[in-house]
Amino acid sequence: MLTKGLHRAGLRGWFLHAMSLGSVLLCVLLWQRAKTVDQDERGNAERRALFVGLWPPTLWLIGDSIERHERPSRRLLG
């Protein structure tokens, strides 16, 4: 039901898949940046990178669900 509304609002599966891959890149960049900050701020920076690292599977699965609404339904005849 939620994915049907997102599809009607104009969101497409390929867009969420691209966002998922982009969030992997963002996670790596944040993790790399966490290694360059001083020791007092490192814990917060690492937690931020881990938080962003939780996004890719969620975005990918929502994209898959929206793609189901994009494809014509195939029903078995008989």
Number of helical stretches of at least 4 residues: 4
Q: Mind describing the biggest β-sheet?
A: none
Indicate the percent of residues in helices.
Answer: over 70%
Q: Report the C-alpha radius of gyration, rounded.
A: 18 Å
Instruction: Please report which band the strand proportion falls in: under 5%, 5-15%, 15-25%, 25-35%, 35-45% or over 45%.
Output: under 5%
- Spans of at least 5 consecutive residues with low confidence: none
Shape: elongated
Question: What pattern of helices and strands is seen along the backbone?
Answer: HHHH
Specify the structural class: mainly alpha
E-strand count: 0
Q: Domains counted in the coordinates: how many?
A: 1
The end-to-end span amounts to 28 Å
Roughly what is the average pLDDT, rounded to an integer?
A: 87
Describe, in plain words, how this protein is organized in 3D:
The protein has one domain (2-70). By secondary structure, the protein is mostly helical. The model has no long low-confidence stretch (mean pLDDT 87). The chain is elongated, with a radius of gyration of 18 Å. It contains four helices and no strands. α1 (2-8) packs across α4 and α2 (13-34) runs antiparallel to α4. Helices cover 77% and strands 0% of the residues.
Quick recap:
The protein has 78 residues and is mainly alpha-helical.
Topology:
Elements (H helix, E strand, L loop, with lengths): L1 H7 L4 H22 L4 H15 L1 H16 L8
Q: Which key phrases capture this entry?
A:
single chain, 78 residues, mainly alpha, 4 helices, 77% helix, elongated
